[in-house]
Amino acid sequence: MPVSLVHTVILPARLDDYQPALLDALLATGEWVWQGLAGDRVAFMHKDNVGLVESASEDSVLDPADVTVLTFLQRGGGWRTNELVEALSIGEEALRTSLARLAHNGSITNDAFAPARQFSREPKAGGGSQRRPGRPRLPTRRSVHEGRWSALRPSVQGHHAREVIDILLRRYGVIAKEMVSAENWRASWAELRLVLDEYETRGDLRRGYFVEGLSGIQFATASTVDLLREGLAPVSENGAQQPGGQLAQELLHYTVMAATDPANPWGSVLSFRGIRRSVGAWLVLEDGLPILQFEGRRLTPLSDRPIAGFQLAVEALGQQLPKRPFRGKHGVAIEHWGDQSVLERLDELDSLFAPADVWLRTPKGFRLSR
């Protein structure tokens, strides 16, 4: 997941009254760790699962200073930055540059999350920095939340397909090639297939075509298959559920989710036209299916239905879009509907946004009022 969204989007969506100190308290126990990934992303994992996910360190070329720091940390223990300065007789700024680079490529971690949020990859154009591109560094000012640095030591040796299968089954319920390709698992799909076929032979898993849009070879537990069948039970014309379908009788449910949220399969595990899994993009799901994408000041329909059919989705977007990611900005505004300016279709869109009292008209479109 993107480092920048952990505190503002990902965890607040799962925990009421979330505070960053909660994550630091969990990391301080040593039971859970974070690992830097390519693209300013981070993965959280239990200490027993370290080594299941590939890191960028395997392809990285380290500076001599980086090697010195990493070798020292691999001896064991947790070390604060000032302690490393003294132990290695190295300048603090140079040390912080090495720590950030090693954290960024997944070689080391920290028992606080602040360092993961603070390191940056490269300066923006025109920023005036003389650092070489691709050389992340930590701020030179010491943070009271900086925590202790330690080497990430693989807890498992080899690719451990069985552990990966257990994680994927608990996460998705169904395993197909797309689930493996979407993440940085050290084990390949071919290695997982050998174990999955073994589980099927023993009767632990079933093989079939359970989810449309995934490749043909899929595996699931018997309980998952039963749940899928229950959810697909037919519904009569008056909306009443026919026998055997408890999930199918639910009314339409709308969920607003960050496009890069790990819980969102669309655009990675499941393909869907038009979806951009970029930081700052949001999806409106209708019973789990994406029908709107919001990014910047553009709201893009992902369905061919008439505009009036998006009214409940637009209302849900206004009600559920979290405030925290937009603090310090000019608020949430919509000035484009797909490729067109809102003003070009103002009559239609006015009737779409007006019933939702969370949206206000502006000279350029609509603005979220709350």
At a glance:
With 370 residues, the protein is of the alpha+beta class. It has helices at 6-10, 20-28, 64-73, 81-88, 92-104, 114-118, 161-172, 177-181, 189-202, 222-231, 311-320, 346-353, and strands at residues 32-37, 41-46, 108-110, 149-151, 174-175, 206-208, 218-220, 254-258, 281-286, 289-295, 298-301, 333-334, 336-337, 340-341, 359-361, 366-368. The two termini are 28 Å apart.
Structural commentary:
This protein is α+β, with helices and mostly antiparallel strands and 370 residues long. The chain contains 12 helices and 16 strands. The strands form 5 sheets. A 6-stranded mixed beta sheet has the order 8-9-10-11-13-14, with helices on one face. Strand 10 and strand 11 form a beta hairpin. The longest helix has 14 residues. The two termini are 28 Å apart.
